[in-house]
Amino acid sequence: MTASSAVTTGTLVVPDARLYYEVRGAGPLLVLVGAPMNAASFAAAAEQLAATNTVLTTDPRGHFASPLDDPHQDSTVLARADDLARLIAHIDAGPAVVFGSSGGAVSALALAQTNPDRVTTVVAHEPPLRELLPDASAQRAVTEEIIATYDLGDVVGAWKKFFAQAALPIPDEVVEHMFGGDRDPLQVASERHWFDHELRATTGWVPDPPLLRAVPTRVIVGIGADSAGQFCDRTSRALAAELRCEPVLFPGDHTGFVGDPAAFALRLQEVVDEP
Questions:
Q1: For all residues of the chain together, what is the average pLDDT?
Q2: Is the pLDDT of residue 3 over 70?
């Protein structure tokens, strides 16, 4: 365990939104980002990494403490990449190493394509890049079915379909317990924004592998050691093949940084420090 580090919080006004962020520690700038996962999801790992780094975490636009001027606006990948570039410039401790997980990995890849001067290394942990898969067309149809189910008011049904597409083995009774009944209004608002305004754009984003190979930013593809056969394991391996690199394994599954933040943080530091 590390001693608890002081947390500085702030809000940065960006086009169409106000971004909540947290900063811990001192040293080289390391950004931990998700989408829709917020700063709280990375807090435990950030505490570990703050012993050697300035660690920036944020609520992505449209989620929790980062409201949009227009709550019905879509959260595009390029807008989130621009948010990251602005946050890094605002903190003024960069360029940064950016660890992105899930939709945050997609944001980080877009950042490397659009603002490579802001980021020295991107660790893209399990980006859900559907369009790289050979069955992209079928997966696209499933995504639309998931969103339609949610918009019909069947929240539990939508999550069951989502976990089935993701190949995440979560029992139906657990899904019903997590997403049925009374729930936190902030969590529900974040969920609705993700289903209606983020999921489609994130999974449908198409990276530019030749550009990612050409930019000075080092791009590392990360996969959970326990994610074999899952949707994001497949998409991550497809991305690694396009980038002509070997993926690196991290502890746990898609959210290993939550399950064992200390081990995950140690592995991330090892991966970043490797030449």
A1: 96
A2: no
On the 0-12 / 13-18 / 19+ scale of CB atoms within 10 A, 263 is middle
Q: Which residues pair with 23 in a beta bridge?
A: 8, 56
Q: Alpha-carbon distance 111 to 119, whole Å? A: 8
Q: How far is CA 251 from the centre of its chain?
A: 16
For 186, list phi and psi in degrees, rounded to 5. -65, -40
Q: Are 2 and 46 in contact (CB under 8 A)?
A: no
Give the whole-number percent of the chain exceeding pLDDT 70.
99
Residue with more model confidence, 94 or 149: 149
pTM: 0.97
The side-by-side arrangement of strands in the sheet containing 54-58 is: 7-14, 17-24, 54-58, 29-33, 96-101, 119-125, 218-224, 248-250
